[in-house]
Design brief:
Blueprint (H helix, E strand, L loop, with lengths): L1 E12 L2 E7 L11 E6 L8 E5 L8 E7 L7 H5 L7 E4 L12 E6 L4 H13 L5 E7 L8 H5 L4 E7 L8 E2 L4 H7 L6 E5 L2 H13 L7 E2 L3
Parallel strand pairs: 7-8, 7-11, 8-9, 9-10, 11-12
Antiparallel strand pairs: 1-2, 1-6, 2-5, 3-4, 3-6
Length: 220
Amino acid sequence: MHTAKILKIDQVTHDVKRFRISEPDDFDFKVGDATEIALDEDGWREETRPFTMTSLPEEQSLEFTIKGYPEHDGVTERLHHLQEGDTVLIADPFKTFRYEEPGVFIAGGAGITPFLAIFRDLERKGKLEGNQLIFANKTSDDVIYKSQLESMDGLKVDHVLSDEDLAGTHHGLIDADLLTDLVPDLDRRFYLCGPPPMMEAVEDVLNKLGVKADSIAFSD
């Protein structure tokens, strides 16, 4: 494990924070990769949790976008109580998502994190055109990086809110009717990331709509 210093902490939503952390030497990662993070505290150094880098490899520091869970006194919630200047332990990176071709990205809540680096990389290269994001959250206040995502040139963004019915968004859950409405051509590549129950439900819907299993990508 590498010891890394927290350089900056910003509040993104009411329960999500952005952490800028010093990049360890020889930390060679690719867009979409993740790592394991542990608290640099007695009794917690062996407790690791996976987090995706939302920064790009060429940046001088690592960015993590992390949701807190006040109901659980675990690693993720304790990270939210750390201050700038504190240290954490970071493992070597590992592969999660790889972008293969334009497609439909379906994310639930903090499941947007592996897609953020992919979108930022494609935007930087001018290759976002043809990609679509269907982003499911409870309310508009839960949407991570809403304005940034909507301002990305070439990315089509559709918000689905389960607990709010707002103009410009879709109300409810991601079901067959919604998917056929938002994605008229289902002969696409689908990238899924979110809470397991949601992803299982979406995968089931896609299968019933005739989307081939090898056209659906999950994190490794």
